User: Which sequence fits this backbone?
């Protein structure tokens, strides 16, 4: 599985995440405690390797603003966490990740309506659209056909549960934010251990973790 570390706000965290093996980094432009400015995101992204996905997170943003920020910052994808319709997503000449909150089987059925490069499945909304640190019932995703969409699993993933989630859901990528934080701040040791848990099965890696 691939790994996305979301809620990046500084160059040190970005670079350590990449060095640890992160395949994608997320930058939150929507209202959030992890919101980042366009100028800061641009500065961080300029320092990153080309192969790393740079994903901007938005909620009900206008098409013009999405295009402008995508080009200005140097994003590779836009992740849409709002009420964006399939038609709106299709109208964008950009690589789109559509986030869908999962509460029931009816929500799972919404996935087939979207023809996006990736579908991100997340927990029900809390204060913000995403990044709330809660899981959902992963069993709702079993035995589903997703029209070859690459599935990204988010919502309450941690060092302790990511392996279980990976076995049960078998997503293309897992997405973590609060699960690698200590007191609301990205924890470098947690990031390293989370990535190793995903990539290497967690063998002989417990010594990496020291709470900060």
Assistant:
């Amino acid at each position: 599985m691939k790994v996305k570390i979301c809620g990046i706000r500084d160059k040190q965290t970005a670079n350590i995440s990449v060095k640890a093996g992160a395949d994608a980094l997320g930058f939150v432009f929507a209202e959030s405690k992890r919101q980042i400015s366009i100028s800061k995101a641009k500065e961080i992204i300029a320092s990153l390797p080309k192969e790393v996905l740079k994903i901007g997170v938005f909620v009900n943003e206008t098409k013009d603003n999405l295009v402008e920020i995508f080009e200005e910052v140097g994003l590779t994808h836009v992740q849409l966490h709002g009420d964006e319709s399939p038609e709106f997503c299709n109208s964008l000449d950009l690589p789109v990740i559509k986030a869908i909150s999962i509460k029931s089987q009816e929500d799972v059925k919404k996935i087939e309506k979207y023809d996006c490069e990736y579908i991100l499945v997340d927990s029900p909304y809390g204060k913000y659209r995403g990044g709330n640190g809660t899981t959902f019932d992963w069993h709702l995703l079993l035995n589903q056909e997703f029209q070859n969409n690459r599935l990204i699993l988010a919502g309450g993933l941690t060092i302790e549960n990511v392996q279980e989630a990976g076995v049960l859901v078998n997503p293309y990528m897992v997405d973590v934010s609060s699960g690698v934080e200590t007191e609301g701040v990205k924890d470098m040791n947690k990031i390293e251990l989370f990535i190793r848990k995903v990539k290497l099965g967690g063998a002989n890696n417990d010594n990496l973790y020291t709470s900060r």
Summary: Residues 122 and 130 are 7 Å apart (CA to CA). The longest strand covers residues 53-58. Helices lie at 11-20, 38-45, 63-73, 86-91, 105-110, 162-169, 188-200.
